[in-house]
Amino acid sequence: MEGQAQVCTRDRMTEQTADRKSDEAMVGQGRPPLLTGCPWHDVNEMLQSVGLRPTRQRMALGWLLFGKGERHLTAEMLYEEATLAKVPVSLATVYNTLNQLTDAGLLRQVSVDGTKTYFDTNVTAHHHFYIEGKHELVDIPNSNLVVQNMPTPPEGYEISRIDMVVRLRKKR
Fold first, then answer.
1. Which fold would CATH assign to domain 10-16+33-168?
2. pTM for the full predicted model
3. What is the rounded CA–CA span in Å between residue 104 and residue 58?
4. How many CB atoms lie within 10 A of CB 7?
5. Strand, helix or coil for residue 65
6. What is the mean pLDDT of the chain?
7. Measured between alpha carbons, how far is 30 from 72 in angstroms, rounded to an integer?
8. 80 vs 46, 60, 116, 164, CA distance in Å?
9. CB 1: neighbour CB atoms within 10 A?
């Protein structure tokens, strides 16, 4: 299908999810989503694959979040996009939804300065540049960063992940 527009049709979705009936019992048990390339269907699948009910608000916010590829957004940025798209949600609902998607593993939370939190649609292990003047978060390509001499965590704890944010500013 390279070079052709993907059309989201009932036949296409039915054809590509025909085997799903046997997977219905796995909803909410961390099954991999059955993605088709149809953004509305894929958001629905992503939500159901992690046990979240695809409400209208989650679907609309998911469409805005995941329909544009990998990106970094604050709750305020997503709220502004939702407002412009005429999606009737409050800022509190945006925060709640982002936190639910993060808890479910569909988003990654990245804090900058402890004052600004970004939500990353790329949940793989990677690091970021933070462009200070633009307040923009950018993935570091080919993370060749090596963290040496890791501290020993306290008794009963383990390191779950390391988030590195490299701050950038224009040369003076």
1. Arc Repressor Mutant, subunit A (1.10.10)
2. 0.74
3. 13
4. 10
5. helix
6. 80
7. 24
8. 23, 13, 16, 27
9. 7
Joined together, the tokens standing for residue 62 give 């998911």
- Measured CA to CA, the distance from residue 122 to residue 142 in angstroms comes to 14
Three-class secondary structure of residue 119 per DSSP: strand
Q: Please, what sign has the CA dihedral across residues 8, 10, 12, 14? A: positive
pLDDT digits (tens, 9 = 90+) for 7-34: 454 444 434 333 333 333 333 446 666 6
CA 99 vs CA 74, 114, 116: distances in Å = 11, 16, 14
Q: Taking a C-beta distance cutoff of 8 angstroms, is the pair 115, 121 a contact?
A: no
Tokens of 40: 């509305």
Query: What distance, in Å, lies between the first and last C-alpha atoms of the chain?
Result: 48
110 in Cβ contact with 72 (< 8 Å): yes
